[in-house]
From TrEMBL:
Residues 1149-1180, 1208-1230 are annotated as: Disordered. The keyword Metal-binding does not apply. Residues 1170-1180 have a biased composition (Basic and acidic residues). Residues 1159-1169 have a biased composition (Low complexity). WD repeats lie at residues 380-421, 503-544. Pfam families: Beta-prop_EML_2. Residues 387-653 form the EML-like second beta-propeller domain. InterPro entries: Beta-prop_EML-like_2nd, CFA-57, Quinoprotein_ADH-like_sf, WD40/YVTN_repeat-like_dom_sf, WD40_repeat_dom_sf, WD40_rpt. Residues 1221-1230 have a biased composition (Polar residues). Keywords: Coiled coil, Repeat, WD repeat. This is WD repeat-containing protein 65. Residues 721-784, 829-919, 957-991, 1080-1139 form a coiled coil. PANTHER family: CILIA- AND FLAGELLA-ASSOCIATED PROTEIN 57.
Length: 1230
C-alpha cells in the first residue's frame, strides 16, 4: 500500500497514568497521550511519538495478546531509557524504549503478577534495575535486572493486599527501595535473590496505626540520603529515616483535609502539590529534622490563560495536582492536573517576583505568603474529558472541537496552536464549521445555536429549537446544513434560517449524516439498522438498506452517490450499491467512524480500541493500522487537500495525522488559494468604534506630549549652554592650579630621586652582605655533610664486606644441596632406564613366540591344501574315505580355534604390559609433582615472611617522609623570601637605571648648549674687533676726503684688506661649522651605542645573578636530598644488621633445631639465595648512586668557584651602579 500516515501533532494528556510527566532534559518533556508517549521539544514546539503496544504483546511461551493501554511510565536517571507499562488481557507488560532512537529495546512480563497491569515503577540510580508494582487485588512487587534477564530476580506480595500508590529506589543504593500506599510505608532490601523488609519499617507501620485514622500514603520522595517525605490523604507531611523509622510530622504541613498527590525533591528541599490546586515549596532549615514552607503558588484557571474576554464563559478550574517533574537544572517545574492539563513554572521568575512585589494574600494561618501565579500552559490548554464533536474548515486551516467539559475550541493545524476557547454553562454535544470559517453551529442540550467566529470570541447569531442535537453538518457549499433531532433530520438554509424540509423515516436515533459532493443528496444511518440515501430536491428516499440486527454508527458515499460505505455493531465494513450489499469485510473490533478522502481513493476508519485504519481502493479488506487513542474514536475528519487527518476520542485527546499518498494525484490548489481567507475575520462594530475612539484619544495625547517634549528640549538646551560656560571657566581656573601643582611636584620628584638613589645603594650593600653570610653558612654545612657522608660510606663498606662473607657461606651450602639432589635424581633415572630395558626384552620374547605360532599356522594351511588336492584326485574313493575326511575337518577346525585363542592371549599380554608401563610412569610423575608442590608451598611461606619484612620497611619509610615534610616546608618558605628579595632588588635596579639614563641625557644636552654659547661668544668678539678695525680705517680715510685720487686708492686698499678677509673668513667659518656638525653626529652616535651596550651589560649581569641564585637553590635541594638518602641508608644498614644478627642466632642454635629444619632445607635455601641476590643487587645500586652523587658534588663545587670568580671580576659590574662622572668621561673619550 502506497498510502502512509504519520502522527504530526496531538493535544491532550492521559491523566490516569501514574507519574505522567517527566523531563528528558531542560528543553524536552515526555508525557503520555492516548496509546502513545510524546517527546515534546519546548523550544522548537515539535513532537516525536513512541507508539504503545496496543496492537499486541508477547507473553511467556511465545504467544501474543492485545494490550489495553498505558498504565504507568518512568525515565531512567541517566536519561537514556523510558519504561512504559501497559495493561494486558491476562498479564502486565513493560516495554523499555531508547529515548535517542525511539526504538523498543526490551519487553518484560511475568505470569506471577496476579494482576493485569502495573500501577507504578521506578529505575535504580544506575539504570540497571527496575522495580514494578502490580495493581490490586494481589499487589505484587517485582525486582528486575531488565538488561540481562527477562524474568524478575525477586518478588513479594504484601499481606494483606493493599493499594500501593508509589515505589522508588534509594538515590544512592541499588538494593534499597520504598513503597507507599493505603496505610503502608515500607522499605525493602534486595539480598541473595530475596527482598527483605528493613527493621525500621515495622516501627513506621506502628506510627501510622497510632494516628487518629489509617493514613492513606499517596506519594513520597527522597529529599536526602537519610530522609523520606511522605504525603497523605489528610494533608500531612510525614518525615521518615532511610531505615524506615518514623521521625516527625512536619509542623507546616497543609493539614486541611486536602490530599497531597505528588512530591518532587530538589537541592534546597522539596515541592508538593495536592487536591487544593496549590503548589507548596519547602526549604530545609538549620535543624535537620524540619523543613519550612517558603511560598504557596496557585494554579491558573483555563479562561484566564486563553480567553480573557469576560464573555468567554465561566472560568474552569485547573483541577488538583496529579504529578510533577523538575528539570535537571532545577529552573523549570512541570505540573499535570486531574483535568488533563500540563502547566509549566519558571522557578527563578517566581523567586524574583516574590522579592520584587508584595504578596497577594495569606495562607490559612496568615503567616506564609501566597505568591502570584507564575504558571503557564506547556503548549496550550486541552480538553479535560471526551471530545464528541469535530469539524474542519475549507477556507482556513482551522479545526473546531467540542467536549463534555462544556468547551468549544478552535485549533490551527498549520501552526499547531489553539486559536480560541469558549466555555458554556450547558452541555455541548456537536459542532460544525462553515466552509468560510466565519460561522459555527453548536448543539446544546436545549437548542442548536449558530454563532459567528470573531477575533477573540464567539458571538450568537440565532437559535434553532432542536434539543440535544448530537449530529449537525454544513453542506460542502455552506448554503445548507443538516441537523439531527432524534429520528428526524432537519434541513435549514444557512443565510435565511428557513427550514427547507425534514427527512423522516428512521425508527431509531440518527447517528451519521453525510452530504454528497454536489450537495444534492444526503446519506443517513441510525440505530434502527437503516441506511438511507435522500434526494434533497423533493426530500424523498432514493435507496435504502435495512438490517435491524445491526446498529449503524457511520456512513459515507462516493462522488457518484451510488456507492455507500457503512459500518455498525456487527463489526463489518459494508459496501452498498443502490441499497444492496455488494461487499462486506469482517473486523476483529467494532468500527465507530468512517471518513472518505475528497479524491475518493482512501477510506479511514476509527475503531472502538482507539486505532485508525487506512483502507485503499478497491477495497480488499486489507488495511494499515495506526495507534492513536486509548479509548474509542469519537470523530474523524479530513482536510480539503487530503493532506491531514483529524481524530478525536473518548480519552479527551485530539490527533493531527499527516497523509502521504503516491497513488492519489495531488489537488492542484496552492496554499495561497486554499487559505485565501486566513487573515480575514469578523469583528463587531462596537469593537471597531471603541478602537477608533481609543485611537483618537491616543492621537490627542500624542500631540500634547510632542509639544510638551519640544518645549522641554528647548529649556534643556538653554540650561546646557549656561552650564557649558560655567564649566569652561572652571576648567581654565583648574588648569592654572594644576600647572602650579605640576611645578611643585617636579621639584619634589627631583628630591625623591636623590633620596631613592641613596636608599638603593644602602639596600644593595645590605643585600651583598646577606648573600655573603648565607654562602658562608651553607659552605660550612656542606663540609659537615661531606664528613658525615664519608663516615657513612665507611660503615657501608664494612657492612658490605660482612654481607659478602655471609653470601659466600650461603652459596656453598646451596651448591652442596643442589649436588645431593642431582645425585638422587640421576640414581632414580638409572633405575627407570633399567626397568624400561627389561620391559623391552619381554616384548621381544613375546614377538618371537608370536612369529612361531604364525609359522605353525602356515604349515597347517599348507597341509590342508594338500589334503584338498588329494580329495579331488580321489573323488571316486569319496564314499570310502568320507568318515576319515570328516574327522580331519574337525581336527582342522580345532587347530584354527587354538590359533585364534593363542592370538587373543597374545594381544591381552601386550595390553597388560603397556598398562603396567603406563602405571609406573604415572606414579613417577605423581611423585615428582608432589615434590614440586611441596617446594612451591615452602616458597610461598618464605614469600609471606618477605612481605611482612617489606611492610616493616614501608612503615619506616613513611615515618622518615613525615620527618622530612616540615624541613621541606621551611625550605620552601626560605625560597619564597629569596624570590621576594630578588624581585625587590630588580625593581630597585630598574628604577636606578632609568634615572641614570635621564641624568646622562640632561648632562649631554647641557654640554652641547654650553659649547654652542661659547662659540657664539667667540663669533661676537671677532665681529666686534673687526668692526673696530673698519671704523678706525674709515676714520683715517675721512682725512683724505679733499683729495679724490688719494681717497680712491685708500678705498681700494680698504676693499682689498677687509673684503678679502671677510670672504676668506666666511669660507673658513663654513668648514668649521661642518666639522662641528660632523663631530656632534659622531658623539651622538657614540652615546647611543654606549647606551645600548650599557643596557646589554646590565641585562647580562641580572641574568648572571639570577642564574647564580637558582644554582644556589638547586645546591640546597641536592644537599637536602643527600641528607635524606643518608638517613635512609643508615636505617637500612641498621635493619640489615638486625637481619644478620637474627640469622646468626638461628644458625648457632642447637642440633635438635637443625635436625627439625632439615625437612625445610631446600625451600629455605632457595628463598635465602633469592633474598641474598636481591640484597646484593640493591647494594650495588646504592654504591653506584653514591659515586654519582660524589661526582655531582664535585661538579657543583667547581661551578660555584667559577661563578665566584666571575662575580669578583671588575668588568662584570653594571654601569648603572658606578659613578655618573665615569660615564661622562667615557663619552668624552669616545
Amino acid at each position: 500500500m502506497s498510502v502512509t500516515a504519520n502522527l504530526l501533532h496531538c493535544f491532550g494528556l492521559k491523566g490516569d497514568v501514574q507519574d505522567n510527566i517527566w523531563y528528558f532534559d531542560d528543553n524536552i518533556a515526555v508525557f503520555p497521550v492516548g496509546d502513545n508517549v510524546v517527546v515534546y521539544d519546548v523550544v522548537r514546539k515539535t513532537q516525536k511519538f513512541i507508539n504503545g503496544g496496543a496492537i499486541g504483546g508477547t507473553v511467556e511461551g511465545g504467544t501474543s495478546e492485545p494490550l489495553e493501554g498505558i498504565t504507568a511510565m518512568c525515565i531512567s536517571p541517566n536519561k537514556r531509557y523510558v519504561a512504559v507499562a501497559e495493561k494486558g488481557t491476562t498479564q502486565a507488560f513493560v516495554s523499555i524504549y531508547d529515548l535517542f532512537t525511539l526504538r523498543k529495546k526490551k519487553v518484560i512480563s511475568t505470569r506471577d503478577c496476579g494482576s493485569k497491569h502495573f500501577v507504578c515503577m521506578n529505575f535504580s540510580p544506575d539504570s540497571k534495575y527496575l522495580i514494578t508494582q502490580g495493581a490490586e487485588p494481589e499487589s505484587g512487587c517485582f525486582f528486575w535486572n531488565w538488561e540481562k534477564q527477562p524474568k524478575p530476580l525477586a518478588f513479594f506480595k504484601p499481606l494483606p493486599a493493599s493499594a500501593i500508590s508509589q515505589c522508588s529506589f534509594h538515590p544512592n543504593d541499588n538494593s534499597v527501595f520504598c513503597i507507599s500506599g493505603n496505610g503502608v510505608f515500607k522499605l525493602y532490601r534486595y539480598i541473595d535473590n530475596n527482598l527483605k523488609l528493613l527493621p525500621g519499617s515495622a516501627s513506621s507501620a506502628l506510627a501510622l496505626a497510632k494516628r487518629d485514622q489509617t493514613q492513606q500514603c499517596l506519594c513520597h520522595a527522597w529529599v536526602a540520603e537519610e530522609r523520606i517525605v511522605v504525603g497523605t490523604e489528610g494533608g500531612d507531611l510525614l518525615l521518615f529515616e532511610s531505615t524506615g523509622e518514623f521521625k516527625v510530622v512536619l509542623p507546616q504541613s497543609p493539614q486541611d483535609n486536602n490530599s497531597i498527590n505528588s512530591i518532587v525533591s530538589y537541592s534546597k528541599g522539596f515541592i508538593c502539590g495536592g487536591s487544593a490546586g496549590n503548589i507548596m515549596m519547602y526549604e530545609k532549615t538549620d535543624d535537620k529534622d524540619y523543613y519550612r514552607r517558603t511560598r504557596t503558588i496557585p494554579l491558573i484557571s483555563l479562561s484566564v490563560q486563553v480567553a480573557p474576554n469576560p464573555s468567554a464563559g465561566p472560568s474552569l478550574s485547573a483541577g488538583s495536582v496529579h504529578s510533577m517533574a523538575i528539570s535537571p537544572s532545577e529552573e523549570h517545574l512541570l505540573v499535570t492536573t486531574t483535568r488533563n492539563q500540563i502547566f509549566a513554572l519558571t522557578i527563578p521568575s517566581v523567586l524574583e517576583a516574590d522579592t520584587a512585589k508584595p504578596s497577594t494574600g495569606l495562607t490559612r494561618d496568615d503567616t506564609l505568603p501566597i505568591s502570584p501565579s507564575g504558571f503557564e500552559y506547556l503548549t496550550t490548554s486541552f480538553h479535560s474529558s471526551s471530545v464528541y464533536g469535530l469539524d474542519v474548515c475549507v477556507r482556513k486551516p482551522l479545526v473546531a472541537t467540542c467536549s463534555s467539559d462544556k468547551t468549544v475550541r478552535l485549533w490551527n493545524y498549520k501552526t499547531n496552536s489553539l486559536e480560541l476557547v469558549k466555555s458554556f454553562p450547558e452541555d455541548v454535544y456537536a459542532v460544525s464549521m462553515h466552509p468560510s470559517g466565519f460561522h459555527l453551529l453548536i448543539g446544546f442540550s436545549d437548542k442548536l445555536r449558530l454563532m459567528n467566529i470573531l477575533m477573540k470570541d464567539l458571538a450568537k447569531v440565532t437559535d434553532f429549537d432542536i434539543r440535544s442535537c448530537r449530529e449537525v453538518r454544513f453542506s460542502h457549499g455552506g448554503q445548507f446544513f443538516a441537523a439531527v433531532n432524534g429520528t428526524i433530520v432537519h434541513i435549514f438554509n444557512t443565510y435565511t434560517f428557513e427550514n427547507m424540509g425534514n427527512l423522516r423515516g428512521h425508527n431509531g436515533k440518527v447517528k451519521s449524516v453525510f452530504w454528497s459532493p454536489d450537495d444534492l443528496r444526503l446519506v443517513t444511518c441510525g440505530l434502527d439498522g437503516a441506511v438511507y440515501e435522500w434526494l434533497l430536491k423533493d426530500f424523498k428516499r432514493i435507496s435504502e438498506n435495512v438490517q435491524k440486527t445491526c446498529l449503524y454508527s457511520s456512513a459515507v458515499c462516493l462522488e457518484d452517490s451510488h456507492t455507500i460505505y457503512a459500518t455498525g455493531s456487527d463489526k463489518k465494513l459494508k459496501e452498498l450499491v443502490d441499497g444492496e450489499v455488494t461487499n462486506s469485510f469482517l473486523s476483529s473490533v467494532s468500527i465507530e467512524q468512517l471518513v472518505l478522502s475528497h479524491s475518493g481513493k482512501i477510506l479511514f476508519a476509527g475503531t472502538e480500541k482507539g486505532c485508525i485504519r487506512c483502507y485503499k481502493f478497491p477495497l480488499t479488506g486489507e488495511y494499515q493500522e495506526y495507534l492513536c487513542h486509548s479509548g474509542a474514536v469519537a470523530r474523524l475528519r479530513i482536510s480539503i487537500d487530503d493532506n491531514y487527518l483529524f481524530s478525536t476520542g473518548e480519552d479527551g485527546s485530539f490527533f493531527m495525522i499527516e497523509i502521504k499518498s503516491k497513488d492519489v494525484k495531488a489537488r492542484k490548489v496552492t496554499e495561497n488559494q486554499l487559505y485565501a481567507d486566513l487573515d480575514q475575520m469578523l469583528i463587531p462594530r462596537s469593537d471597531i468604534e471603541e478602537k477608533n475612539l481609543a485611537l483618537d484619544k491616543l492621537k490627542y495625547k500624542f500631540d500634547e506630549l510632542s509639544m510638551h517634549h519640544e518645549y522641554q528640549i528647548k529649556l534643556k538646551e538653554m540650561n546646557y549652554v549656561e552650564k557649558m560656560k560655567e564649566m569652561k571657566e572652571n576648567f581654565s581656573h583648574q588648569l592654572d592650579q594644576w600647572k602650579i601643582k605640576y611645578e611643585s611636584l617636579t621639584t619634589e620628584k627631583a628630591d625623591a630621586e636623590s633620596e631613592s638613589q641613596n636608599k638603593i645603594k644602602e639596600q644593595v650593600e645590605k643585600h651583598k652582605r646577606k648573600i655573603q653570610d648565607i654562602e658562608n653558612k651553607y659552605q660550612q654545612q656542606i663540609v659537615e655533610e661531606v664528613e658525615r657522608y664519608q663516615m657513612l660510606s665507611k660503615s657501608k663498606e664494612e657492612l658490605q664486606a660482612l654481607y659478602q662473607q655471609n653470601l659466600s657461606l650461603i652459596q656453598n651450602k646451596h651448591e652442596k644441596a643442589i649436588g645431593e639432589t642431582k645425585e638422587a635424581f640421576d640414581q632414580r633415572q638409572k633405575e627407570g632406564q633399567a626397568k624400561i630395558e627389561a620391559t623391552r626384552k619381554e616384548i621381544e620374547e613375546a614377538r618371537s613366540e608370536f612369529d612361531e605360532t604364525k609359522q605353525q599356522k602356515q604349515d597347517y594351511e599348507e597341509k590342508l591344501s594338500a589334503e584338498r588336492q588329494q580329495v579331488l584326485r580321489l573323488r571316486g574313493e569319496n564314499n570310502l574315505m568320507s568318515k576319515k575326511f570328516h574327522s580331519l575337518n574337525k581336527d582342522i577346525e580345532d587347530l584354527k580355534e587354538q590359533i585364534q585363542t593363542l592370538q587373543d592371549d597374545r594381544k591381552q599380554q601386550d595390553n597388560r604390559n603397556q598398562h603396567l608401563a603406563l602405571k609406573k610412569e604415572i606414579k613417577d610423575r605423581d611423585d615428582t609433582l608432589g615434590d614440586k608442590e611441596k617446594r612451591i608451598f615452602e616458597l610461598k611461606k618464605r614469600n609471606q615472611e618477605l612481605e611482612k619484612f617489606k611492610f616493616v620497611l614501608d612503615y619506616t619509610i613513611k615515618e622518615l617522609k613525615k620527618q622530612i615534610e616540615p624541613l621541606n616546608s621551611e625550605i620552601t618558605d626560605l625560597k619564597d623570601q629569596i624570590k621576594e628579595m630578588d624581585a625587590e632588588l630588580e625593581r630597585y635596579h630598574k628604577n636606578s637605571g632609568s634615572l641614570d639614563l635621564t641624568i646622562r641625557d640632561l648632562r649631554l644636552k647641557n654640554e652641547a648648549i654650553l659649547k654652542e654659547t661659547a662659540a657664539q661668544k667667540k663669533r661676537a668678539v671677532a665681529a666686534e674687533s673687526e668692526c673696530k678695525r673698519i671704523r678706525s680705517d674709515l676714520h683715517d680715510t675721512m682725512s683724505l676726503i679733499q683729495e679724490p685720487n688719494a681717497l680712491k686708492e685708500r678705498m681700494k686698499e680698504l676693499y682689498r684688506t677687509h673684503v678679502d678677509i671677510q670672504i676668506q673668513e666666511a669660507v673658513i667659518q663654513s668648514d668649521i661649522q661642518l666639522e662641528y656638525n660632523r663631530q656632534r653626529e659622531y658623539l651622538e652616535k657614540s652615546v647611543t651605542s654606549l647606551k645600548k651596550q650599557l643596557n646589554k651589560e646590565s641585562e647580562k649581569h641580572k641574568a648572571d645573578s639570577n642564574k647564580i641564585m637558582q644554582e644556589n637553590i638547586a645546591l640546597i635541594n641536592e644537599i637536602n636530598a643527600l641528607r635524606r638518602e643518608l638517613k635512609s641508608l643508615k636505617q637500612s644498614s641498621k635493619d640489615k644488621e638486625l637481619v644478620f644478627i637474627t640469622r646468626r642466632d638461628v644458625s648457632s642454635s642447637p642440633d635438635a633445631t637443625q635436625a627439625k629444619n632439615l625437612s625445610r632445607a631446600p625451600s629455605s635455601r632457595m628463598s635465602m639465595s633469592a633474598r641474598e641476590r636481591g640484597e646484593k643487587v640493591s647494594g650495588e645500586e646504592e654504591l653506584r648512586m653514591i659515586e654519582m652523587q660524589r661526582e655531582e658534588i664535585k661538579r657543583l663545587r667547581k661551578r660555584i668557584i667559577e661563578l665566584e670568580a666571575v662575580r669578583s671580576t671588575p668588568h662584570s659590574r653594571p654601569l648603572t651602579r658606578g659613578d655618573p662622572t665615569r660615564n661622562t668621561t667615557d663619552f668624552a673619550s669616545g
